[in-house]
Amino acid sequence: MLVTNGRIYTLDAADRVVDSLVIRDGRVKFAGRRSDVELAAGEPVLDLEGRAVLPGLVDAHGHLMHLARARLSLDVSGAGSEEEMARRVGEAASRLARGEWIAGRGWDHNRWPGAPWPTRGSLDRVAPDHPVALVRIDGHATWVSSAALQAAGITRQTRDPDGGRIMREADGEPSGVLIDAAQRLLQGVQSRPTQDRFDRAVEEALAACLATGLTGIHEMGADRYALASYRRLVDRGRFPFRNHVAVRGSEGEAWREWRERGPEDFGDGRVRVRALKLMLDGALGSRGAALHADYCDDPGNTGLLLLPPDELARLTGEAMARGFQVCVHAIGDKANTLALDAFERALAAAPPAARADHRSRVEHAQILAERDIPRFARLGVVPSMQATHCTSDMAWAVERLGPDRLRGAYAWRSLLATGVIVPGGSDFPVESPNPFFGIHAAVTRRPREGVDPGWQPEQKMTRAEAVRSFTTWNAWASHDERNAGSLAPGHHADLVVLSDDVFTCAEDAIPAITPVLTMLAGDIVHRA
Description:
Helix content is 29%, strand content 23%. By secondary structure, it is of the alpha/beta class. Among the domains are: 114 residues, Diaminopimelate Epimerase, Chain A, domain 1; 236 residues, TIM Barrel, CATH 3.20.20. The two termini are 20 Å apart.
């Protein structure tokens, strides 16, 4: 195919902008001027009509498994109060048989007046005959009804698990919110969807991603059942996407299996199982992020550690020795210090081959002690960050952290100045998978709507950096820079044709950019 008559940003080593590409066998054969191409008889031609083109965009931290599961559960995002949430649950209960579980995701009590934690009582009133389990928007807390607590055997005598908290009423009874590791108490009680239903949900989630311009993700924490679904869809030729998978670590069975199998690719490299995801702390929104000092709005609470530091170092070394990249979830400043400490210990003990090009990652790196910022470059650790978390958290993060700790919060420019790259993602379904929302947040450091609180504008990225954070930097962060990230000859013919030029449009127009066409390996996989 000849792709021509456009402004094609190749993002290659020379940062060339060309008007034409020739695609052969799913890869870029030529990138340059139309006048230098001799068109063979019958050659298909795609006329870009002057539009801008980028390499296919990749989300460096997404959850395809959870995006698919969300399509099979109740959407409770955007609710403005606990009462509004309860009404939605009551409407769902009226359509279900007695005793059937109601699962959902998306609530955020920080957006409610006064930011109160919800309680089981409001769910019991609207769905007394249904166990209800609603996951918070960040995935780090679940709001449950009394029937769900009973089904899981959670009572006032149940102890808080390590790394988790059962929120309680004044008399010690569970109030209806399970934080971080306490959510695992529901495992084995809720049923999973059938294979067919889940496969369909994955296909729908892939179509939604392609429609935003994403051609791939780095999936952080996939389980065995999700990987089995991806394999089935690949075998059927129904997985038009690229997925660099980090299997879930200490909480699931996936690591035990792939630890013995070693890194694996299938579907002609569409799915690459090459990393391990470890969870070190909780989230800032649910006050589970591990901090060196107390939360300003919750004295006595410094958050939760989900994994003992010694175990983190042991698992990190184990994964490195088996050829896996290690990706550690760390949000609070204490968690980031401990993650960097664990990498330092593991690297010191690792064989030279494992140390040489490890590209270990801290996922989120949201709140950093200023002394830890230069350690990423010194250790060769990659800070994988999500710009939209900054703009989503602006309304309440200062209450959690206070002004002093904000200096190390979402500190993209400070990190870039040390010589590291910052791969960009969204953490979907926590945030929208739309990569242009992330590019806008990185460039402007202000929310798409509402008041701009003026958080450290000196930490902004340039447009070139923000776009590379979803392209070339993500390719490097997944050890795939020889195949992906740019439209240089020899690379995958993954590209997105844009409704507007992300490099020249007004800043406020960036979030409105949509793909006119998305291509993967030379095949058109989405057309507006």
